[in-house]
Amino acid sequence: MRAHDIEAVTDEMVRTLRGHADLDWSAPAGDLTWSCRDTAIHVADDLIVYSAQLAAEAETDYLSFGVSVPDDAGPEEVLRVVDAGGALLASTVRTAHPGARGWHPDGVADPGGFAAMGVVEVLLHTHDIARGLGIGFSLPEDTCRTVLTRLFPDVPADPEDAAATLLWATGRGPLDGHGPVGAWRWDSSVRS
Predict the structure, then answer these.
(1) How far apart are CA 41 and CA 18, in angstroms?
(2) Are 82 and 10 in contact (CB under 8 A)?
(3) Is the dihedral of CA 50, 190, 97, 143 positive or negative?
(4) In this predicted model, what pLDDT tens digit does every residue of 50-105 receive, in sequence order?
(5) Which of 37, 130, 136, 186 keeps 20 to 30 A from 17, CA to CA?
(6) Angle in degrees, CA 106, 144, 25, rounded to 5
C-alpha cells in the first residue's frame, strides 16, 4: 500500500458522506455501538495517530495523545478532520524512509503497513457509517485484495470477491464456505 491509496479511499469516504449532514449521525454505524459521528472521529484519530507513530518511529508503545473534536462540530466539520488525517498519513507514508517502523498492538509496522491499516480503517468505517445513514457504498475490489494480502495472511488467497472477504474477515458479513468471524485482528507486522 502506498500514499496514493490512502488519499484515494479518504477522498471516497469524504465524497460518499459529504452532503448527508441532514441525516441522523447519532445513529449506530452499522453493527457498531459507536454512532456514525463517533465512528468518523475514530477514523480521523486512527489516521492521525498512525501518522505520528510512523513519523516519530515510536516502536514500543503509542504516543501519548489523541484527537478530539468539539461536541458542536457537525458532520461536515468531522469529515474535514478525516480528510486532514488522510492527508497527514499519506504525507508521512510518502516521506518516510523504507526502514521506518512504528508500534501498533497488532505488530510493529513499516510505511506500507501503516498505509494498509489506514486504508482498512477508512474502508470499513465508511461501510459502517453508510449503513447507519442508509446510503450506498461499495468497497473497491482491487484495494480490498491488496489489504487482505498485506494485513490478513490467513484469509483465502486471491478471493473471488475481495470486498466480501474483507467484510467477513472483520466480522461484518458472511462468506460462502466459511463460518462467521467473531473477534478478529489483522497482522501489521513487517513482512520479510
Answers:
(1) 14
(2) yes
(3) negative
(4) 999 999 999 899 999 989 999 999 999 999 999 999 999 999 999 999 999 999 99
(5) 186
(6) 80
Fold of 3-138: Four Helix Bundle (Hemerythrin (Met), subunit A) (1.20.120)
Cβ contacts of 165-170, under 8 Å, gap ≥ 24:
166/120, 166/123, 166/124, 166/139, 167/124, 167/127, 167/139, 170/120, 170/124
Query: How many angstroms separate the CA atoms of 106 and 76, rounded?
Result: 31
Copy the grid coordinates of residue 62: 503509542
CB count in 10 Å sphere of residue 136: 8
Residue 53 in contact with residue 62, Cβ under 8 Å? Answer: yes
Task: Say if CB 100 and CB 57 are below 8 A apart.
Answer: yes
C-alpha cell at 11: 477522498
Using CA atoms, how far apart are residues 102 and 61, in angstroms rounded to an integer? 8
Determine the Cα–Cα distance for residues 96 and 40; give it in Å rounded to an integer: 26
CB of 37 within 8 A of CB of 75?
yes
Model's pTM, two decimal places?
0.96
Residue type, 149: T
User: Residue ranges of the domains in the chain?
Assistant: 3-138
